Protein 1
Amino acid sequence: MERLTFDLATTSLRELNTFLHTDAKAGKVEAVTVVNPDGAHNIAVGLDCPINVEVIGHAGYYAGGMNKSATITITGSAGTGVGENMMSGTVHVKGFASNGAGASAQGGLLVIEGDAGLRCGISLKGGNIVVGGSVGSFSAFMAQAGTMVICGDAGDALGDSLYEAVLYVKGSVKSLGADAQFEPMTDADIATVAGLLDKAGLDHDPKAFKRIASQRSLYHWNADANQEY
C-alpha cells in the first residue's frame, strides 16, 4: 500500500475528491496527503472507505463532511461545517474550527484542538465531539444524541433545546439554553470523559468537568405554557 500526495496548487480539488471516491475506495492506497489547500472548500467530503487523509494547512467550508470510516487530519484550522453529518471515522482539526462544526453528526469522532465557533454540534445526532478550547454561543442547539466534551468555556445558550445528548464542560458556561440543566457527575460520566479525552489525545482531569443534560420539559407541547418555557 502506498501514500500519495496531492498538491492543490497544481491539481484541482475535483481531481482529489474523484480519486478519494474511486481509486481510494478500491483500496489502492493507504493514505493521502493534501498540500497547499489554501482554504479550499469541500476537501475530502463524503468518504466511505477506511483511508487516512492528512491536510497540511487550512481547510475551507465542510472539510470532512459526511465522513464514513475515513480518518481525516487537518493540521491547520477549518472553516464552517467541518465534519458535518459525519457517520463514522474521525476528523481531527489541529487548529481552530469555525461555525457549525460537527453539525448533525450521526457517528464518529470530531476533535478540535483549538476553539470552535458558534453552534458547534448543532443538531448532533449521535456523534462525539471533543473541543480542546472553548465553544461559541448556541453550541449543541437541539442536540438529539451523542456527547460533547468541552475543555474550555462555553458561550451563551449552551445546549438550548437539548434532547438526549450529554455535554461535559470543564470551564465556565456563560448561560444555559432552554431546557438544559447541570447534573451531578457519576463514575460513568467520568469514564466517558476520560475515554473521549484519551481518543482525542488531550490531557485533562475528567473529574474537573461538569455534566449538562436535558430537563425534558420540552419533549411535549404544553398548550397551557403560553409560550413560556
Note: The two ends are 57 Å apart (CA to CA).
Protein 2
Amino acid sequence: MMLPTWDHLVAQEDMDIRKVGIAGLGHALCEALMLPQIIDQQVVWDERQAKLSPGTLCKALVLNIFAHRTPLYHISESFEKHETTLYFGEGVRTDDLTDDRFGWFLDRFAAANPAGIFMQVALSALTLHHRMMNGLHSDTTSVSVEGEYSGTEERPNELIARGYSKDHRADLKQIMMGLVTQEDGLPVMGHVLPGNTSDRNWNGDVIESLATFLTTEQCRQTTYIADSAMVTGDNVRTLADAKLNFISRLPGTYGICGQVIEQAWSQDEWNDIGKLAQRPDALILREYKEQWRAKIAFAS
C-alpha cells in the first residue's frame, strides 16, 4: 500500500490545516510551570464577568512572544492558524483575544505584585527541575540614563533619580536593579527600583518577601548571601524571625570589624589560597595583604 504524499494531503479540500510550531513548546512550559493557575490565584478578577481568566490571557501573551511577537491589537490574528482549543480549552476563539482584554489583564497584573508572582513561577520551575535553593545570592546594580524623561514638577518620574552610582557616573541620574539568584545563577526574584534606593532597605524587602513565599522548612535549608549593606539590626532580626541563615561581611561602621582586622594583621597566620580571581591581573594573597597594609599605613 502506498502512503499518501504531503502534496496529496494538502490537496484534500476537506482538510483544515493548523500549525503548532514553537508555540506548542510555550504551551507545554506554561502548563508544566502551572503559570495560568498561579496567575489566576494572584490576580483579582470576577469569574462571572470575565470570559477569559487572567491566566489564560497571560498564557496567550507568552505564546505570542514565543511564536510571533506581534503587538496587542494583532494577537488574535496571529492565532488564526493555530488550534486555540489546544492552548486555551473549549469555547475560546481567536476573536476572544482582543487588545481590550489584554489591557484589562495587564492593569490587574501590575496591581498584583508582579515580583511576587515571578517568584512563585520561579519556585515552580526550580521544583519541577529538581534544582536546589540552598544559597540565594542577592545584589543590586545601577544603570545610568541620559536625556529627558516623562514627569512634571508636581508628578516627577519616580524611577529616575540621583543616587550612589555603581558604574561611577555620579553626574547622571539612574535607575537601580536588584536580582536574587539561586546557586546555579537561576533568577528567583528581580526588581526595577528608583535610582536612590538604599541597598539596606531593598535587602529588607527581599527578606520579608522570602519569608512570605518560602515555607519554614525551605527557610531553614536556605542561606541568604549578600554584601555588607544587608547587615542592619532590623534585617538581622527579620532573618532570625524567618529562620533564614545568612552570609555577609560585617560593615566597617561596626567597631568590632576594625578590631578583627587588626587582630588578623597582628597574628599573621594566613593561608595562601592563590589568586583571588581568574583575571590575568588578579592579585595573589601576598600582594593583597601588602596593598591593605599600605592603605592602613597611609590612613594612620
Note: The longest helix spans residues 114-128.
Protein 3
Amino acid sequence: MSNEELLIPAAQADVSAINARTRRGRIQMLLLLLACAAPVIASYLAYYVFKPEGGKTNFGTLVQPAQEMSDAWFDFPFKGKWTLLVARPAGECQVENSDCLEALFLMRQLRVAMARESGRVQLVWINTDGKSVSPQIAQAYDKNIAGFEILPMPADPQSKAAFEAWLNREGAGQKIQLIDPSPAKMMYFPVTNSSKEFGSMKKDLERLLRFNRKGESLP
C-alpha cells in the first residue's frame, strides 16, 4: 500500500468507492435509456427534421384540404361511396385513342384489384363533350361488366363552370380523381401503364378502404 493510500481514512475510501460505483451505475442506466429511446428519437428526426421529399407513404397526390363536391352538379349518388372519377370527351375516346382508354382501363383494374372490397368503389366517367360514346367503348366499359357510370356534364351553366373549376384545381383535370364518401376529392392519381405505379395506386386505395369506413353506405 502506498504512503498516499495510508493517508486516506478508511471511511473516506469507502465513500469514494461507493461514489464511483454510483457514477458507473448512472452512466449504465443512461446508456440503457438512450438505447431504448433511440428508435423513437430516430423516427422523430426522420419525420420532422430530415424527412426527404420522397419520404411520403402515399403514391397519389393528397388534396389538402379535401375539395367538396356539390349535390347540384350531378343527379347521381356520390355520397356514401368511394369514387374513382375521370373526365374525358366521348368524341375523342375511341379505340385508337390510347390516352383515354388507358385511364378507363386503369380505373377498371384498380376496382377489380380491391377484390372483396370492390363493391365499396364506384367508377364514374364524366363525358365532357356530350357526344355519343362509341359502341365498342360503351360495351367494354358497361356498368354491368366494368362498373362504369357515364355521366354528362352539368346542364346548368353555373354548375358546369363550378364543376370545371373543381375538376381542374391543382392541374388535376386529366388525372384520375378519388372522391371520398362525404363526398369530396381527397387524392388524385396519374394515368399510367406502369405496373409498378399501378401497384402503388392499389396500395393507396387498399389502405384507405382498410382504415376508413366513416360515412359509407355499405350494401
Note: Residues 10-49 form the longest helix (40 residues).
